[in-house]
Design brief:
This protein has two domains: 37-116, 3-Layer(aba) Sandwich (Glutaredoxin); 130-256, Glutathione S-transferase Yfyf (Class Pi), Chain A, domain 2, CATH 1.20.1050.10. It contains ten helices and four strands, in the order βαβαββαααααααα. It is flat. The protein has helices at residues 54-66, 82-87, 106-116, 130-134, 139-148, 152-174, 198-218, 227-236, 240-243, 249-255; strands spanning 37-42, 71-75, 95-98, 101-103. Helix content is 42%, strand content 7%. The longest helix is centred in the middle third of the chain and has 23 residues, at 152-174. β1, α1 (54-66) and β2 (71-75) form a beta-alpha-beta unit. It has 265 residues and is an alpha+beta fold. The protein has a four-stranded mixed sheet.
Length: 265
């Protein structure tokens, strides 16, 4: 199976189709006779590589996990080509075309893909447990407040708020799911079990940004005692669907250069 290892494409043409390397566990076989799908994502600082955008990565991961053959086009927002402007006027990436139709709302795209690319041909990605969909949903807001703060006297409290949100996620990850009730502390790989779901596609890109940016601009590291959270991240970094859809750390740091504020003296 082919993988776009370079993760590069021009702003007006698409990269090679993304599927998966062979792994020990069974994965969906890319359907070369399936629908024509093109995903448009934010370009990085060079106008070609993948830029920082958790929403773009969310859709990238979903399509990859579905096993559908699709193309990825990076869009340079500084010089958006006329043909893309005509295709989706007023729309910023991410958006996608599915058999020529344009879809631009990320949540609706997720719902559409889950319904359209359904079993038995494509895997179901929805989480079985409702709580998995909301786990960690307050982390990104706490992180944003933390890195945007300029007042030293508020820094400790904002860091504590972020830690509290991360601790809540850690607790969810080590707590057994209903089907693990007799197994004590959970050792599952991801939010809803041992396979990536839509919940992970939403949370992991944001969690990665938190990890990279907070370290760069606040010298903050996720506390080592959050063993469930670190296990979760460690498992994610072993997945092609995640690591091959991430923007480079330098792109993430660059995106926050003017967002993360220096603390005053």
């Amino acid at each position: 199976m082919e993988v776009d290892k370079s993760r590069r494409s021009s702003s007006s043409s698409s990269s090679s189709s993304a599927s998966e390397k062979e792994t020990a566990k069974e994965k969906p076989v890319p359907d070369k006779d399936g629908p024509k799908v093109v995903l448009f994502v934010k370009a990085g600082s060079d106008g070609e590589s993948i830029g920082n955008c958790p929403f773009s990565q969310r859709l990238f991961m979903i399509l990859w996990l579905k096993g559908v053959v699709f193309n990825v086009t990076t869009v340079d927002l500084k010089r958006k080509p006329a043909d893309l402007h005509n295709l989706a006027p007023g729309t910023h990436p991410p958006f996608l075309t599915f058999e020529g139709e344009v879809y631009s709302d990320v949540n609706k795209i997720e719902e559409f893909l889950e319904g359209k690319l359904a079993p038995p041909k494509y895997p179901k990605l929805a989480a079985k447990n409702r709580e998995s969909n909301t786990a960690g949903n307050d982390i990104f807001a706490r992180f944003s407040a933390f890195v945007k703060n300029t007042k030293p006297d508020k820094n400790r409290a904002l860091e504590a708020n972020l830690n509290k949100a991360l601790a809540k996620l850690d607790e969810y990850l080590i707590s057994p799911l209903p089907d693990e009730a007799d197994e004590g502390e959970s050792a599952r790989k991801f939010l809803d079990g041992n396979e990536l779901t839509l919940a992970d596609c939403n949370l992991l890109p944001k969690l990665h940004v938190v990890k990279v940016v907070a370290k760069k601009y606040r010298n903050y590291e996720i506390p080592s005692e959050f063993k469930g959270l670190w296990r979760y991240l460690g498992n994610a970094y072993k997945q092609d669907e995640f690591i091959n859809t991430c923007a480079a750390d330098v792109e993430i740091e660059l995106a926050y250069k003017d967002v993360a504020r220096r603390l005053g003296k």
